[in-house]
């Protein structure tokens, strides 16, 4: 995907990362945590232009959960409140045992999409999320068996190499869909030059999604629009609307990028268009 | 064993669900850090939490948690 795709005015898929597994209401009280809250947030984000919702599960007190049952409760709530949004489960989870990581894939029905972290990243001062190749392959194989489209999460340029490696080891169905992530720590340094390099280093024919953490959310979303990519925003990645002002909702962040996209000449994809672009069976 | 600094308190804004609170850092902890506070998934506050390591002296055994000679 390139600037040519921008000029062509292709639709932009907006993904809303509603809750995440790291911070909670202690960081922003508007962040949804319970299945009910997540279901309502999904419907609001969908109404604002999101065609995909990226989901994590939480215990009743807001802490992380990897249980299939909890994901099921969340999906049921999303389907109850939202119209026809694409459900994407996270399989990420620093320090969680490998068998826990596959549990989000086992809901009934399976999610249409799931994230697949492409390699290790540091957390705090003493933790690493390992994401070994063995785990990546195992999660991918289970996704393949269950008909789930992987969203390849690329936290840095080394992970781009891992995308090429995965393509050598496995036969991914087109289009390959990778989320390019920019921010502090293990992430690719958030500069426009690095954004362009990351896009240029994707496998031929790959489709990309753009994710900037914190204050990088808005500029990187805009670059994603300008360079033919898709965009992820949401309270998982950024709790602020602007410096010092907490975002009121996921929908507010989605609405802002939908407006930018439309103004720059790329319409926001409907859910049907998103399914077609991503090669999901309807 | 759960970290001795770990407490559960409701958020001040009226959310009645008790949430992980770090008495050493004097703040609510992130959902993910609560796994360390509770020593879940094989995590251990004494080795995996930098806040514990910075605050353990004096609070819990004068730094003798690891069995080193005082
Ligand atoms: S593990 Fe660390 S963050 Fe958690 S309560 Fe103990 S010192 Fe605080």
Write the layout of secondary structure elements.
The complex is a heterodimer of chains A (282) and B (70).
Chain A lengths: L2 H6 L5 E4 L17 H14 L3 E4 L1 E2 L5 E2 L2 H14 L4 E4 L8 H4 L11 E5 L3 E3 L3 E3 L3 H14 L2 E6 L2 H13 L7 E6 L9 H9 L6 E6 L4 H10 L3 E4 L6 E3 L2 E2 L3 H14 L7 H8 L4
Parallel strand pairs in A: 1-2, 1-12, 2-5, 5-6, 6-9, 9-10, 10-11, 11-12
Antiparallel strand pairs in A: 3-4, 7-8, 13-14
Helix pairs in contact in A: 2-3, 2-9
Chain B lengths: L5 E5 L7 E5 L4 E2 L4 H5 L7 H4 L1 H10 L11
Antiparallel strand pairs in B: 1-2, 2-3
Bound molecules: iron/sulfur cluster.
Q: Based on Cα principal axes, name the global outline of chain B.
A: globular
Amino- and carboxy-terminal Cα gap of chain B = 22 Å
Gyration radius of chain B, rounded: 13 Å
- Overall structural class of chain B, as computed from helix and strand content, comes to alpha+beta
Catalogue the ligands: iron/sulfur cluster
Based on secondary structure, the structural category of chain A is alpha/beta
Alpha-carbon Rg of chain A, integer: 17 Å
The H/E string of chain A reads HEHEEEHEHEEEHEHEHEHEEEHH
Q: Name the helix and strand elements of chain B from N-terminus to C-terminus, one letter apiece.
A: EEEHHH
The most extensive interface, with participating residues per chain, is:
A-B, 24 and 25 residues
Strand proportion of chain A? 15-25%
Which regions of chain A are unreliable across 5 or more consecutive residues at pLDDT < 50? Answer: none
Helix content of chain B: 25-40%
Proportion in helices of chain A:
25-40%
Q: Mean of residue pLDDT of chain A?
A: 96
Largest sheet of chain A, in brief, is: 8 strands, parallel, barrel
Strand order within the widest beta sheet of chain B = 1-2-3
State the helix count of chain A: 10
How many DSSP E strands of chain A?
Answer: 14
InterPro entries (chain A): Aldolase_TIM (IPR013785), BKACE (IPR008567)
Protein name (chain A): 3-keto-5-aminohexanoate cleavage protein
Keywords (chain A): Metal-binding, Transferase, Zinc
Cofactor (chain A): Zn(2+)
